[in-house]
Amino acid sequence: MRKYLVLFVFCLFTGSSFVLMAQGQRTLAIQYVKPYEYVALDNNLMAKAYLSGENSNSYKTIVFESGRTLKVEQKDGKAWVWLPVIGEPEMIEITARNRKLNQEQLFTPLVTSDWGYFKEGTFHIISSSHQDIAWMDTPEYCMHERVNEIIAPALDIMKSDKDYYFGMEQALNLKEFVEAHPERKNEVIDRYKEGRFTWGATYNQPYEGMQMGEQLIREMYFGKLWIKENFDGVEEETAFNTDVPGRTLQFPQILAKSGVDNLFVSRMREGFYDWHSPDGSSVLTYTPGNYGWAAMFYKLFEEDAIEALHKIQNRVKMWSDYYKKHNLPPHFAIVLSNDASGPVDYGHVVKEWNEIVAKTGANIPSLRHSTVTSFLSEIKQPGAKFENLEGDRPNIWAYIHGPGHHKAITASRKAGRILPSAEIFGTVDALLNKSFDQYPTQRLSKAFEESIYPDHGWGGKNGHITDSIFKEKLEFAADEADKLLQASLNSISEKIKTEKSNGIVVYNDLSWNRSGLASVKIDNATAYYVIDDKGNVVPSQTSTGNSNEIQFYAADIPSLGYKTFYLRKGRKSSKVIKAVAPNSLTNDYYTMHLGKGGISYLFDHNLGAEIMNTTRFSGGDILSMGYNGNGAGEFTQMTEPNMEDYDKMSNHIGNWEIVADGAVYTEYENKAKFKHISTVAQRIRVFHQEKKIDFFIDFLNWDGTHNREFRFAVPLNMENSKIKYEVPLAIAEVGKTEMKNAPGGWAWGGTYDQKPVTIHPREVMNFIAAENEDFAVTMATDVALADWIDPTREAVDYTVLQGILMASHKSCHGEGNWYHQTGDHHFKFSLASHKKDESTSFQFGTASNHPLRTVLKPKSNTKGDLAQEMSFFNVSDPMVRISTIKKSEKNNDVIMRLVEMEGKDKESKIELAMPFEQLIKTNLIEEEESKLPSSGKDFKVNIGHNAIDTYKLIFSK
């Protein structure tokens, strides 16, 4: 079927005589032959068309306002005419054999002469393929499709069309391709060096705010660095995270310090942004509004060059003022990308377009195939002004992970925490051995890669397969991290001098001294007590529910180091001042009352303040609500829970029972039955040696009912509080660290017009905290999402800290799976009240998710080389965190990464247990930048606010 472009034109006359004459007249429509038929004539093109309207068979000429006359030919019942394609709108008179039928109206050519700011510019066709690991089908199916039906055909087109360009968005796709077709690797390198086939600088396209800091950094190791090392030194300059409507604070810094210049995003107002991280580093960020719009809706190149000229001119007119304001070169991108879209060669349109420009001599931009990197290299000219952008964009798709995939994301977060610790103590062990021969390079690399493999494409068609593969990889990474860390600790422990049997070496994997709960397994633990290396009795008790495990309070464990304790037979205990009843407790820190659903009263003796407001919820309450969202989808605001079948733990009788009581802690348990959960077990553990309360939540036999959500809630005696929470490598604050304006950009559901400050719940790492002038409360969490606003009907005004436990919703894919998550689920939270202090919140929240590790040494070792207590690495400022210490990617030197968490410029001193010979500043992916005049067992560095800085330490060979 032929399609016709109907160009409606309108009569423009003045004077009352025209009004009388024009009554009842209609504009004559001009219909062009499609595809366009045209000839070159007098520095223009003449396109074939016919006049459509009443009495059209009587027309004989068209007289232009400029004086030009064109003949109308009557043939096959139509009034044919050749009309100029390019020109300015002007009045025409269409004459007929009967003068009474003459018609005067405005004629607008298909392509006007006015290309405004772009008249001498260039239009870039950017063809690429947006790739989830799996969305259109299973990971295996999608990998086969992109390797054989997208990447290989794109390379084939490039063989015959030297002007064709194409792009893939992530390094993982490149890895898949060369593993499937190693014989084409050199071909890929050649096209890469020509700039015709480019790949994204990140490993894949993740939820940035979900990954732990080192996991997010490893996107660059397995992306940018891997490409450079495996593809003849190619420097990939552009990263993509196209689909997800969310950005985390430190991602621009990660890119900038990895040598990546550009970031391509979508679902955000079209434009060019200088996007800053809090430290001041930035990356040029480009967005077309929505990555799929040009391909799905505009269809600019589906016909021929004239149609493309006509459509694009209408698109770019609105951009002239923007380009002028920002002094941008006249280069404009048309991004042709869609989910799993294959390569399309518009070379015929490009050729025809540029021939038209050459033949007519018109001031029309040239057209070419291009890539994002090539396009932005043209934009980044001296004097160009990009929109300044600061702050993060909370992810409105956050429900797709965490609440929707609780066990998988628990494994992801565990891997993200333990893998850097395994690197650190693996490095320590190698330094002690004076050899990296046993350093588990390949196993660590594999575990890290598996830990970041899941991208933003959870669910989708056959999503149950995708989700199970993602979960399997994450659980492998977490299990491998645990094994690797324990192996290093065991090896180090063999070198520690212990003069008595049953030594317990307690390890601290964080870069500040800390105290906390430690545990060790031994048969008949009730027959033992614990002493320190000086013989002092240490508070201890048998573990809840395990008579073969003893738990004790390990005080003052050195930074990234250890301290030795000992088990002794007998019964000695530490005196603890406390008053304990089945529903109340008083110790040095708190007075606590228990009621329905949790804590009904909590008074802090140090602060002299009542911490909770329990008029609506109890402390540690569990909420069951309706939820009709789908995690990821074409909506523009996060779906809120609803009150369908609303229930909460405090609606049920509080049957509290003391299940453990000792010198370290007292623990209470309460159980209830919820609809769809056979047992909800709630345990509250109050510590006596430190100011801390743990909450354990067990869901037993959850039946997977659809459209439910569960939350853990702590209501605070606090209004108008500041809310702070940890994000990857930074601390965010509600109302302060978000981008200030609504992001704009488009989805099927409309425009993203919600200001980020209003978005909740949000992705969090280790903690969320609330503070006012009187006190602060920090809640450590092991779930991915947290909130602070009452989600129920008639919401309270005071702060309610919450962890989103689970949500049983469906993939937004039409053939997608339900995230029902049947079975048992276990959750843990920790709580502390304190004076407002970001350092306390950060250290408490992080330490709560980094339990102290132990190694039992049944036999003494009087010949050990290491002291009974040691710090291998220590930082003078506890808010300058050592993110990792690892073997260099290139040799046996040591890499140390520091992160300033407080937002202050500092000079920090780093102390080491072993002397080094040379210190070198590197970028994030370990490429050397400058040598620093330091050696010995310590060095000082200036680290800027919120900076992520990496150093290479060269030790004696």
What's the SSE blueprint?
Blueprint: E1 6-7, H1 16-22, E2 29-32, E3 38-41, E4 44-52, E5 59-64, E6 69-71, E7 73-75, E8 78-84, E9 86-87, E10 90-96, E11 103-107, E12 111-112, E13 122-129, H2 139-160, E14 166-168, H3 171-180, H4 185-193, E15 197-199, H5 213-230, E16 238-240, H6 251-256, E17 262-264, E18 271-276, E19 282-287, H7 293-298, H8 305-316, H9 320-325, E20 331-336, H10 347-360, E21 366-370, H11 372-379, E22 387-390, H12 406-433, H13 441-452, H14 463-493, E23 503-508, E24 514-521, E25 528-532, E26 537-538, E27 540-543, E28 546-557, E29 561-569, E30 579-581, E31 584-586, E32 590-595, E33 598-604, E34 609-610, E35 621-626, E36 642-648, E37 657-661, E38 665-674, E39 677-687, E40 693-702, E41 708-715, E42 722-727, E43 730-733, E44 746-747, E45 750-751, E46 762-763, E47 767-771, E48 776-781, E49 785-787, E50 800-808, E51 823-834, H15 838-848, E52 853-857, E53 869-871, E54 873-875, E55 880-887, E56 894-900, E57 906-922, E58 928-932, E59 936-943, E60 948-955
Parallel strand pairs: 9-12, 13-14, 13-20, 13-21, 14-15, 16-17, 17-19, 18-22
Antiparallel strand pairs: 1-2, 2-4, 3-4, 4-8, 5-6, 5-10, 7-8, 10-11, 18-19, 23-29, 23-52, 24-28, 25-26, 25-29, 27-28, 29-53, 30-31, 31-32, 32-33, 33-34, 35-36, 35-41, 37-38, 38-39, 39-40, 40-51, 41-50, 42-43, 42-47, 44-45, 46-49, 47-48, 48-51, 49-50, 54-57, 55-56, 56-60, 57-58, 57-59, 57-60
